[in-house]
Amino acid sequence: MPHRPPQIPRRSRLLLVLAAASTVLLAGCTSAGGEGGSSPSAPPSAAPALTRPAAPEGELPTELQTRLQSAVEGVMAEYDVPGAAAGVWIPGKGSWTTAIGVADVAGNVPVTTDMSWPIRSVTKSYTVSLILRLADEGRLSLDDTIDQYVDGITDGDRITLLELANMSSGNADYVGEAFLDDFQKDPGKVYTLDELNAFVVGQPAQFEPGTDYLYTNANTNLLGAVIEKVTGQPYADALRERILDPLGQTGTRYITDVDDWTGPHPTGYVQADGTLQPQQENPSILGPAGSLFSTLDDGRVWADTLGSGALVKPETQELREVGHEIPRPPYDLYAVGIGETNGWWGHNGEGVGFTAATFYDPETGASIVVYMNESNIPGVHPADAAFRALAAVLTDAATS
């Protein structure tokens, strides 16, 4: 499907594209470095084996499906979202999926439940999960400092992998003048992970490691470099071999060249000058922080696997759920590559015309996934708003 950039200045457009990925987390000043590490005293052992969880059999009750449908449609109408795919899965009760609206406004192409969607920062939860699995295997320690893997990072001898994973490192983000200038020369350039990380090298720290919180893509992309160093593989291969293939995630791909985004998929939009403007897609600018594309059913599998703790050892899951109150992104707590909202654990994603929400309720085993093709609405994350609306329907249904 064609993509046309919005008619706004290129520098402003890039800042808009990356706004959700460089949000300041105005949290307290407790150091995360003292909250736990992974230096194993026992011999290394394998991380938990992964298997693809099956979807609950049957459909959810008709009346509940109607309420769920209305919840998503209400959010779409409120924020003028062109299209959405969403699903709710509850063990022992059944499943519900829906495709609403259009994937491409100009062509009036309807959304389908099997489309491939950019999941943006949900990618962070995959990357951090792989780091945690490598720690469980004794391949690295969360107390390792980033200078052991990447040269030239300011305070690299004091920033731990755990601080990168929970966004308390204080290191610079890569979205500065140098990157903006380079991007403007060729907005279609396919960046490598090394090129993205090079924009962080030698940049001033934003705060002392472990004393504050700043949500950036750079934190996660540096972890991507750690994965490559430890495994001796490109990030995409390491992720596929250790997480995607074992989970049967055949619809989930790490894509940096938009030409590789084949098959039916939606166009992303933002509001500009009162109209919906299609966005030019260049996933390479996000790297291991945001370049995964996925399907609704693979989202179900990831919500279940991530939120249930199946990816890592119990003690590692306990560590990763040490969170902090933050105003943005829209979680009650943000922890170690995972967020918590009203008891649901998962991750959101936003940028370049798309939003995603992937969450799991440990109490009921229910999963909710929402993908939408509009982003950067001031003060609103459409997919997260829809997730919250769906979760509220489930809570009301359980108590009525």
TrEMBL record:
Residues spanning the membrane: none
InterPro entries: AmpC-like, Beta-lactam-related, Beta-lactam/transpept-like
Gene source species: Cnuibacter physcomitrellae
Region described as Disordered: spans on this chain: 31-60
Keyword Ion transport: no
Keyword annotations from UniProtKB, A to Z: Signal
Composition skew (Low complexity), residue ranges: 47-56
Signal sequence coordinates: 1-27
Source species taxonomy: Bacteria, Bacillati, Actinomycetota, Actinomycetes, Micrococcales
UniProt-listed Pfam families: Beta-lactamase
Name the UniProt record assigns to this protein: Uncharacterized protein
Signal as UniProt keyword: yes
